[in-house]
Amino acid sequence: MADFAVDFTKSYARRRPDEPRSHYSSRLKFINAMIKGEGDNVTDERIEVLSHCYSNVKYLSNIYGPEIMDCLRTYDPEIARMHENLDPAEEAETEPPAKRAREE
Q: Beta-carbon neighbour count of residue 32 at 10 Å?
């Protein structure tokens, strides 16, 4: 456990009441990898949001915008394999219209 970077006092580390133990364990591994990879560049709020996005992609087959999907792929190779054939245009379609308008 010495190499485990998750702070269990933070809200992102709590298990949701409806979350199966296996999903919680997987989410914690993702959080740990992200904290180690991002270091101080990631806030607690971002960790929490991305960890929930992670669960939604991994277990519910949701797709988010390219920025989020790239982050998830970086820290979970299984997600990268699950979505390796995903076209960037398909990801872009999942972004809110307001964000696409700002980028154009």
A: 16
